[in-house]
Design goal:
six-stranded mixed beta sheet; two-stranded antiparallel ribbon
């Protein structure tokens, strides 16, 4: 007679069974397509307490169990100055999901709060640096973050509309400040709506943005360019349901021959550099 599954086992089964097409398949597709994990890797999975990073941790846990090649995983979560309630929620979810998470503390929220300009930008940079440093201390060569498909297309559109740049979000990149370290994004092809559906199905409630600047607001988020971009994409989808896929595919099919200027490896190039040569071919 089979035993009744525990809650964390039911959650794990939902990833592989009910949401296999929406979560597991695009996750493993991205890992393989972009060569995010290699044999012998030791990866720090960074957990913020939100739905994206929590799902990433469970996916990485499952992959580590069943991978055809060996690699190691460390699960790390930074408390940058959470309220007692948010710290408790983080710990409760870690326990529910049965994740062996190492929590370390910092005072990044306090430092960012004191910044006169761009506290969110400063906070993000400091958090990234702290995660790299902790991962390096644990002997990891990579950190895995929970950025997903929607983050990719929203960042691309924001750069175009508000930053005057045609710039995407890479599935992996080498750290400039921590030599030998690499950042990977295994949820690169996973849609946010599917992550939310998985969380609702399992009755899970995660942290949203837990910084002090957003606590107490109606939605838990500041009105931001990202929110405006989300709303813009939602409106575009009403007329063109495939608009998200089109934006995503566009950054995989860039034609540099159609741009008057572009930058690669920090060097700017101008179409007139070889305009005449190309015309004579």
């Amino acid at each position: 007679m089979s035993r009744e599954l525990l809650r964390h086992e039911l959650i794990e089964r939902s990833i592989i069974k009910k949401y296999r097409k929406e979560l597991w398949n695009p996750f493993t597709y991205a890992v393989n397509k972009y060569e995010l994990i290699k044999p012998g890797d030791k990866i720090a999975v960074c957990i913020s307490g939100g739905k994206d990073s929590m799902l990433l941790a469970k996916l990485m846990q499952e992959l580590c169990r069943h991978s055809a090649y060996p690699f190691e995983v460390e699960y790390i979560a930074m408390d940058p100055g959470y309220s007692a309630e948010n710290r408790r929620r983080l710990e409760e979810n870690i326990d529910i999901l049965r994740l062996p998470v190492h929590i370390f503390e910092s005072d990044i929220f306090a430092a960012a709060d004191s910044a006169a300009k761009s506290p969110c930008y400063l906070c993000a940079r400091m958090r990234r640096g702290a995660l790299y440093a902790e991962a390096q201390r644990l002997g990891c060569g990579k950190i895995a973050l929970g950025h997903h498909f929607n983050d990719v297309i929203e960042t691309t559109l924001m750069a175009l509309l508000y930053g005057a740049q045609l710039q995407g979000m890479m599935p992996k990149l080498h750290s400039t400040n921590f030599p030998g370290m690499e950042l990977i994004r295994p949820l690169y092809c996973v849609h946010e709506e599917d992550i939310s559906a998985w969380a609702r199905y399992n009755g899970l409630t995660f942290l949203r943005c837990a910084c002090r600047l957003t606590e107490g607001t109606e939605t838990g988020e500041l009105v931001s360019k990202r929110r405006e971009t989300k709303e813009l994409i939602a409106r575009l989808k009403l007329e063109s349901p495939n608009v998200e896929k089109s934006i995503f595919n566009a950054i995989h099919e860039v034609s540099l021959d159609t741009f008057p200027a572009y930058k690669t490896r920090g060097v700017e190039h101008w179409f007139l550099e070889d305009y005449d040569q190309r015309g004579n071919k």
